[in-house]
Amino acid sequence: MKRLLPSPTSRLRFREMTIRDLDNMAALLGDADIMAFYAAPKTRPESVAWIERNQERYAHDGHGLWILETHSGEFIGDCGITWQSYNDTPVREVGYHVVTAQQGRGFATEAAQACVELIRREFAPTALTAIIHPENTASRRVAEHLGMTHIADDHAHPWIVRTVMGMTVGADGQLSS
Fold this sequence. Notes:
Elements: E1 12-15, H1 22-29, H2 44-61, E2 65-70, E3 75-86, E4 89-98, H3 107-123, E5 126-132, H4 137-146, E6 149-154, E7 162-169, E8 175-176
Antiparallel strand pairs: 1-2, 2-3, 3-4, 5-7, 6-7, 7-8
Helix pairs in contact: 1-2, 3-4
């Protein structure tokens, strides 16, 4: 499988996760505020599994969640494209997590837009989603900035009905919701 990577943006670059990222990823995924819309923050061993799962995705799918950092190497979070599903429908999803100190500066939107461009370049025309906790208004705003609209409610989880935002990414640069 061809391994993909979004193009750098004016402020950010992407790279594959490695176990050397464990301290940063454990801090990110273990942060109760960042993980408020997950079942629980991740433990350090769960963060190891997160990194390993993304390494498997790179090898199998060509994409996953990548480390997101400034051009000078400052850790910002993770962002990328993974296979997920809603209501038993498999879909590519753009996902993002940004460290608390860097939230509200447009990094998630900038990084997610680079992922949309990667999807356009490699897979268009295709659907792209963001599957979001219904109370996560910041994440929904990022999806809306990308051009996504509400397309479904996901009833696959016993503890939450998630909001599915989506759009079709066209090869011609056109987006449709």
